[in-house]
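Reviewers of the previous submission asked for a worked example of the structure-prediction workflow described in the proposal, so we include one complete record here. The input consisted solely of the amino acid sequence. No template or homolog information was supplied to the procedure at any stage.
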Amino acid sequence: MASKRGLSIDEKKKRMIEFFHEKQDFFQLKDVEKICSTEKGITINTIKDILTSLVDDGQVDSEKIGTSVYYWSFPSKAIKNRKETLANIEKETGSETTKNALMKEKLERFKATDDDDEKRQQLQEECMDLEAQKSKLLKELELYKENDPELFNGLKLSTEASKKACNRWIENIFSLKSWLKNKFRIDESVIDKQFEIPSDLDYIS
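From that input alone, the workflow returned the following structure tokens.
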């Protein structure tokens, strides 16, 4: 019997992103390692490297709060990135279409004359290159458009879920501050400074 093939790097990244989007919460590294290894089948000793790669690529956010580092990634950010990519592709497609039209116009002018065969040949080659680039961009554009409806429909829900998750953590911070103040008689400003908590921290409305 053939041995079971392990997950590729891309598959691990995809599963980890799915984990964050499904949970829509904030996690420390130890939590990511525990859950992704059991629920997503990612080898635990590779999780830190995969997570670091996703942070470097901007697909996962991270923030140090006090002495702990938290990680998160909400679907709303993925939708925003996809919208930006789609807009860039549409812009590039429009630019290539304009260039292509100008090149065809020049080519037609040279075709009407018998001189400068080398220049005419060069324009023909450039025109062909632009056609190929335009075709490639149109294919990419269609690919993104095919995936857009499902993502955009979920934008409102994912944004609301992200807001609720943030407010849960803000509530936890306020509860912890209150406990510290009552337990150790510490001034709130001292707590904020020690744990690097913004003085204007408030719930997201």
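The longest strand covers residues 61-65. We consider this example representative of the routine output the project will generate in years two and three.
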